[in-house]
Amino acid sequence: MQESIKYLLDETRLPQAWYNIVADLPVPPPPMIDPDTGRPVTADALLPLFPEAVIEQEFSVERDIEIPRPVRDIYRQWRPSPLHRARRLEKALDTPAKIYFKYEGVSPTGSHKPNTSVAQAFYHKESGVKRLATETGAGQWGASLAFAGSLFGLDVDIYMIRASFEQKPYRRAMMESYGARCVASPSSETVVGRGMLARKADHRGSLGLAMSEAVEVARRRDDTGYALGSVLNHVVLHQTIIGAEAIAQMEMAGDYPDIVIACTGGGANFAGMAFPFIGAQLRGGTKTRVIAVEPAACPSLSRGKYAYDFGDAGHLMPLVKMHTLGSNFVPPGFHSAGLRYHGMAPLVSHVMELGLIEARSYQQSKIFEAGILFARTEGILPAPEANHAIRGAIDEALRCRTEGKSEVILFNLCGHGHFDMQAYMDHADGKLKDLDYDEGELAKSLAALPAERVAAA
Ligand SMILES: *Cc1c(COP(=O)(O)O)cnc(C)c1O
After folding, report:
1. pLDDT of 256-305, one tens digit each?
2. How many angstroms is it from 336 CA to the middle of ligand 1?
């Protein structure tokens, strides 16, 4: 198995293929469902949104999917991303465990997201569209797609949650610097947006709503494609370059992880890091404990229901089976915007059901403490989302100290926090409150799941 990964590295040590875990799963994942017919979605139904190559990846059962040369040539600017051993953090924790981390903050926009934005923009360009529409929360994904669009000469329209549009002007400025157009969502440009504004003129927006606006525009206009930053199979696939590189790099370091850890919003960076390791295990290799860390205020894996649900609030997208808090669930306002999504990638949900991964959640004061200790020992100021993975790694290292075990821990540092300084200031000022979601609201949201529409479920 490790031979095959080694074989896949090209002359600059970049993997030549993404890894598709579907090929190695003992049980195939449940299909996407058309909410109108209750039957599995066909490739044709997705053509108004995505290029054929992307749709093929969405349904693919091939294990290795070649990364096109032009995509690799762009990846090379920051890939392979570095893998470090956190020796000073180990020392501060006085742990016999070895802690390694893979750093995705070296990409042009500071996170793992360009791994897929570049690939998606490439395939859209090849298919002949002129414009991409997408949604963004705090702007990590919007900035990454704006960057990729600028490389391929595509116009990019970004529907940005109104609350972030107003409160987070820096990432908006970044998107506009790349040449993208940023629109506060809900907007008056779409039927979905106008409908929402008519009901509530001062609507603050949500990721699911912005998603519906972008999907509506891409469906309506032939010259416009849709791109999204997480959740779907093809996005998860593009992120597996993280784990594929990490396997080769751990081998260079002469170690193999006992534990792999990453944070989960929609599940893309987690799957990107973990799936190549889970695949190695499924093909008879070493068993690895895999831990997904999520915010206590939006715990889709730990508290959500595994059921068919909509990915977007306007219900324009197909139903997917996933761990979900319900598409109407609105989490309290905590400081990790990238982890506020109501659902989880169907493939991550599926491996959770198969018992291949564990999930745990933390309150924000605990994760910021971890991020500060990491910054003071390793020098990198992490994205708040990444602090969840760091907290998980630290707690495992502390368990190793208690048990006197020298386990090898690998976590994904999915981005830097240079655009998140308000969160660090709030933490320093003691203003970060631990927030709980409303149990009553969650029960209501779960009761509204669209189960009866799914004949095949
Ligand atoms: C978007 C984002 C996330 C959450 O997305 P996943 O799909 O769960 O990876 C996490 N961290 C950072 C830095 C992000 O930008």
Report:
1. 999 999 999 999 999 999 999 999 999 999 999 999 999 999 999 999 99
2. 9
Do 162 and 62 share a structural domain? yes
Query: What pTM value is reported for the model?
Result: 0.96
Give residue 173 CA to ligand 1 midpoint distance, Å.
20
Q: What is the CATH number of the domain that holds 381?
A: 3.40.50.1100
Digit-coded pLDDT (tens) for 153-211: 999 999 999 999 998 899 999 999 999 999 999 999 999 999 999 999 999 888 889 99
From the centroid of its chain, how far is CA 247? 20
What is the model's pLDDT at position 9?
77
Residue nearest to atom 5 of ligand 1 (CA): 265
Report the nearest atom of ligand 1 relative to the CA of 110.
13
CB-based burial, 184-214: b 16+ in 10 Å, e otherwise: bbbbebbebbeebeeeeeebbbbbbbbbbbb
Number of the ligand 1 atom closest to the C-alpha atom of 414: 13
Atom of ligand 1 nearest to the CA of 269: 9
2 pLDDT band (50/70/90 cuts)?
very low
Are 356 and 406 within one domain?
A: yes
Q: Write b or e for each residue in 222-231: b if 16 or more Cβ atoms lie within 10 A of its Cβ, otherwise e.
A: eebbbbbbbb
Domain that holds residue 88: 78-110+235-446
Report if residue 217 sits inside a domain: yes
Identify which of 120, 211, 230, 269 to mutate to test ligand 1's pocket (most ligand atoms within 8 A of the CB): 269
Same domain, residue pair 284 and 146: no
